[in-house]
Amino acid sequence: MNMENDTVNECPLAEGEVPSEEMLYDLADLFKVFADTTRIRILYVLMERERCVADIAEAVGVSQSAVSHQLRILKQSHLVRFRKEGKQIIYALSDDHVYTMLSQGMSHICE
């Protein structure tokens, strides 16, 4: 996703206006991140509370290496944030938008 312009946070569109090609590509890239079930499971685990890689790996049932790889993608897409606590890195959802996207997606498929 092209975060250099930070177009994700600035999306004022007039009614009926079609987003620019760049914004549409960014949106498509965001939705591609949700196309992996391991990443979705990680996001659901982080909906509960902040966790370190080892805790995420245990909850999701994959290796720490696999979790780290997926977390890198989620960080690049600004879906998760992290903070250091000593030598440990603690991950959390980046904001309420991520929770909302997951909830709305689940509501959509459950209709």
- What is the topology, as strand order, of the major beta sheet? 1-3-2
Structural class: alpha+beta
The count of helical stretches stands at 5
Distance between the termini: 30 Å
Number of strands: 3
- The shape, in one word, is globular
Radius of gyration: 15 Å
Order of helical and strand elements:
HHEHHEEH
Chain-averaged pLDDT = 90
Low-confidence stretches: 1-9
- Binned, the helix content reads 40-55%
Please specify the SSE layout and strand pairing.
Blueprint: H1 21-33, H2 37-48, E1 51-52, H3 53-60, H4 64-76, E2 80-85, E3 88-93, H5 96-110
Antiparallel strand pairs: 1-3, 2-3
Helix pairs in contact: 2-3, 3-4
How would you portray this structure in words?
The structure is a single chain. The protein is of the alpha+beta class and 111 residues long. Helix content is 55%, strand content 13%. β2 (80-85) and β3 (88-93) form a beta hairpin. α2 packs across α3 and α3 (53-60) packs across α4 (64-76).
